[in-house]
Amino acid sequence: MKIDKKLARKRAALRLLLSETGNQVFTVEFYKKGDYKKGELVSRKMNARTGVQKDLKGGVSTIAGKEDIAGCYEMNGNGYRAFWLDGVISFKCKGHETTFSDFPEAPLMKGATA
């Protein structure tokens, strides 16, 4: 699947931000991928960390090799989560917030006409 240069840069920027957070807590707000593809804009905000190994049982990661998905551990006790990099609205860590305004072309919203 071919992605445009803006999305490739956004993914790279987010991967860099994630790597720089280390084990620190960050807040990410994003559109949920499944709902977005159905034409619904459902956003979610979570506090999370990367690098957590609590409760890992081994086995194969379900998101390994997916360039548009990032994994993390949600801090409010909900466990491991993944979020869609293309749908990120904002990312905040260490008091710095980065806001993104570009999103991939969405399907028609429910009830909208072309």
Task: Write a structural description.
- This protein is α+β, with helices and mostly antiparallel strands and 114 residues long.
- The protein has one domain.
- It contains 2 helices and 6 strands; from the N terminus they run αβαβββββ.
- A 6-stranded antiparallel β-sheet has the order 4-3-2-1-5-6.
- Strand 3 (69-74) and strand 4 form a beta hairpin.
- The longest helix is centred in the first third of the chain and has 17 residues, at 5-21.
- The chain is globular.
- The two termini are 25 Å apart.
Compile the SSE list and pairings.
Layout: H1 5-21, E1 26-31, H2 33-37, E2 43-49, E3 69-74, E4 79-84, E5 88-93, E6 96-99
Antiparallel strand pairs: 1-2, 1-5, 2-3, 3-4, 5-6
Descriptive labels:
single chain, 114 residues, alpha+beta, six-stranded antiparallel sheet, 2 helices, 6 strands, disordered C terminus
Identify the strand order in the major beta sheet.
Answer: 4-3-2-1-5-6
The number of helical segments is 2
Poorly predicted residue ranges: 106-114
**Main sheet characteristics:** 6 strands, antiparallel
Report the β-strand fraction as a percent range. Answer: 25-35%
Number of domains: 1
Assign a percent range to the helix content: 10-25%
Taking all Cα atoms into account, the compactness measure Rg is: 15 Å
Structural class: alpha+beta
> Any idea what the shape is?
globular
Question: Which quaternary structure do these chains form?
Answer: single chain
Helix-strand pattern: HEHEEEEE
How many DSSP E strands?
6
Q: State the end-to-end CA separation.
A: 25 Å
For the residues shown, what is the average pLDDT?
81
